[in-house]
Design goal:
about 450 residues; alpha/beta; Rossmann fold; 2 domains; binds nicotinamide-adenine-dinucleotide
Length: about 450
């Protein structure tokens, strides 16, 4: 760490210490910390945005809602378009900042940074994150942690060696609705009974999966494309579909949800089988249609978990469902979806309603218990209960808040530290291997550890 960074760290610690001593607590209200334009405060967090594309801009907007976060630098190779757009916006919002094409130059020149937010294509994450950590900075890095396990491993090691924070962008881990479901339904009340199966999907319409174009006035020069690992503008814009750059929809979309499977089941899978192919889209390298079955061995027994992602039809959208012998939880990042369903014959949930775990009594209870005799083979409509927690912030904000809170206060734990991101990368990257191998692949427990 350079001298200026060490000094800033000391200033911050003494500020936090005196704030705590004064009984002011560490809750950072906009009254306490400055937004862009105001005078700098000792516990402001100075950040750089590395990668100013679609997701970089989403993260930029979410960060702007968080008091005391100051943009000091942006770095992007597409100077004529994404970098310019983000830089202009930040100027308009009042952030004085440097602009860079080369991340090494940025790390070298910007001596007052605390953290880097990385939203470059997956195959750049390892290099960008490792260099930032080695420069003494905390890192928020988008998922997929890396397109290779070797890259992801280097990231875990660099975080450990540097003692800095590395949060991976599986933002559902900080979503209050997901946290409620895990704490109250899965762990607390064990509402689902013995979970036996999981299923989930991310089905996207054909329209949402068309190749991305670019403003023809602003192409990157071929020399820049070559230098940064892209064969053409088409590949630069659609890197997710190409081997060596991204991992296709199973990695891009599936990793978010498969991450939840392992979190809620409290285990990593022991095997995977998968079917997939380049069935529909032309000119892509990664599979556009993937269907997966994992086998988990949990404390309660075997769980089989299905997941699919398709790119031609959006039927039923995206969600994860956990099915137990007493209930089903269906949850999604989409705010409108999230319910628990009680199985016929399961113990009633009145106690949990009174405790506020579930917000509404079942509407169809009377019908279900009306005494009508049903053939056991008939499917009885099950009672639906709603999750009483709303998520009223942009999707990424709570995860960024968790990161910045941890930067400020070492007692705060990251919700998705490098080690967890790594376990998810191991789980998800193996799907593409299983498709290619066309057979069941096993995971060894030690594969999940660095
Ligand atoms: N958490 C989520 O929900 C979520 C959603 C979307 C994307 N993402 C992740 O965010 C990352 C970015 O995705 P995106 O959709 O914004 O991609 P994008 O192609 O829109 O943006 C990537 C940006 O990085 C820049 N770039 C490429 N190589 C660079 C380099 N070597 N140095 C500096 N800049 C470079 C490009 O010019 C571009 O502006 C990916 O890892 C993706 O998986 C996460």
């Amino acid at each position: 760490m350079n001298n200026q960074r060490i000094k800033k760290e000391i200033d911050r610690r003494s500020f936090l210490h005196s704030a705590a001593a004064a009984g002011a607590g560490l809750v950072l209200s906009p009254m306490v910390v400055g937004q862009a334009g105001g005078a700098a405060k000792p516990d402001d967090i100075n950040i750089a945005l590395l990668g100013c594309g679609a997701q970089g801009q989403v993260l930029m907007n979410a960060c702007r809602n968080i008091p005391g976060v100051r943009f000091k630098a942006v770095c992007d190779i597409w100077t004529a378009y994404n970098q310019r757009r983000v830089s202009r916006l930040l100027k308009r919002y009042g952030y004085e900042h440097g602009t860079y094409v080369d991340y090494k130059e940025m790390l070298d020149k910007e001596k007052d940074l605390d953290a880097v937010i990385i939203a470059t294509p997956d195959f750049w994450h390892a290099e960008h994150a490792v260099a930032s950590l080695k420069a003494g900075l905390n890192v928020y890095c988008e998922k997929e942690m890396s397109n290779t396990l070797e890259g992801a491993r280097r990231m875990v090691e660099a975080a450990k060696e540097s003692g800095k924070l590395l949060q991976i962008g599986h933002q559902r881990r900080s979503n209050p609705r997901y946290i409620h479901c895990y704490d109250k339904f899965i762990k607390g009340a064990k509402l689902l009974g013995r979970i036996t199966t999981v299923n989930g999907q991310w089905n996207r319409s054909k329209a949402a999966c068309e190749d991305l174009g670019w403003p023809k006035k602003y192409p990157l020069e071929q020399a820049s494309l070559d230098k940064y690992g892209f064969k053409s503008m088409q590949q630069f814009r659609n890197w997710r579909w190409y081997k060596g750059l991204g991992g296709g929809p199973i990695v891009d979309l599936g990793s978010h949800q498969i991450d939840i499977y392992s979190w809620f089941l409290g285990a990593n899978p022991k095997s995977v089988i998968a079917s997939g192919g380049v069935d529909y889209w032309k000119g892509h390298e990664w599979y556009d249609t993937v269907m997966v079955v994992y086998e988990y061995e949990t404390k309660e027994g075997t769980v089989r978990a299905f997941y699919q992602t398709i790119t031609t039809n959006s039927s039923q959208g995206y969600y994860e469902s956990f099915l137990g012998d007493e209930g089903t939880l269906t949850i999604s990042e989409a705010r409108a979806r999230g319910s628990v369903f009680r199985e016929p014959g399961a113990p009633d949930w009145d106690k949990w309603i009174k405790l506020g775990y579930l917000s509404e009594p079942p509407k169809k209870e009377e019908e279900a218990d009306s005494g009508a005799v049903l053939d056991v083979r008939e499917t009885v409509p099950v009672a639906e209960y709603k999750i009483p927690v709303t998520m009223d912030k942009p999707y990424h904000q709570p995860h960024l808040e968790n990161f910045f809170n941890a930067v400020r206060d070492n007692k705060v734990k990251l919700n998705c530290p490098a080690e967890i991101g790594y376990e998810t990368a191991v789980t998800v990257l193996k799907v593409n291997e299983a498709v290619a191998a066309a057979r069941k692949l096993d995971f060894k427990p030690e594969e999940f550890k660095v």
